[in-house]
Amino acid sequence: MASPGPQTDFLEPPTGARRIRSIGPGLLAAATGVGAGDLVATMVAGASFGTVLLWAAVVGTLVKLALGEAVGRWHLGSGATMLDGWRRLGYWATGFFGVYIVVWGFVYGATAMSAVGLPLNALFGGLPVGGWAAIAGVVGLALVWVQRYHAFEKFMTVLVLIKFATVVFVAILVGPDLPALANGLVPRLPEGSTVYVLGLIGGVGGTITMAAYGYWLFAKGWKGPKWLSMMRLDNATGYIMTGIFVVSMLVVGSTILLGENLTESDSGLLTLADRLGALYGEPVRILFLVGFLSVTFTSLLGVWNGVSLLFTDWVRAIRLPHGKKAAIGPDEVDTVVPGEEPGTDTGDRGDGPGRAGAYEAARAERSLPFRGYLLWLTFPPMALLLIGRPFALTLVYGVLGSFFMPFLAVTLLLLLNTSMVAREARSRWLSNAVLGISSVLFAVLLVTDVYSRLT
Question: If we measure between CA atoms, which residue out of 425, 439, 347 comes closest to residue 80?
Answer without folding.
Answer: 425
